[in-house]
Specification:
Length: about 120
């Protein structure tokens, strides 16, 4: 059974940084594309970033230049380094893993950017 677990959310001041982690189990991680979405209250789920099994990264316009996605296949973990955070980045961040034609989601981790 595939499991995806996020961690690293929290409260940070505007301009600050956070690093989210997402660890997968039960899958051939190295063969899986993974990524992040986020959802703020009252909004739909919004794409943030993704990384292919070969390490190619893609970003939403809102994340370009501030966020960096990376992966460590040895530990089955994907990271989202978020810098220069803004209040509008506040949301629940969800990690996903694509494997064998299915998408698996984590439970989400809350990020709050506020002074």
């Amino acid at each position: 059974q595939v499991q995806v677990v996020e961690s690293g959310g929290g409260l940070v001041q505007p301009g600050g940084s956070l690093r989210l982690s997402c660890t997968a189990s039960g899958s051939s991680f190295g063969l899986s594309a993974m990524g992040w979405y986020r959802q703020a209250p009252g909004n739909g789920r919004e794409y943030v970033a993704s990384i292919t099994r070969g390490g190619m990264a893609n970003y939403a316009n809102s994340a370009k230049g501030r966020f960096t996605i990376s992966r460590d296949n040895g530990s089955n973990t994907v990271f989202l380094q978020m810098n220069s955070l803004k209040p509008e980045d506040s949301a629940v961040y969800y990690c996903y893993l694509d494997s064998a034609g299915r998408r698996y989601w984590g439970q989400g981790t809350q990020v709050t950017v506020s002074s």
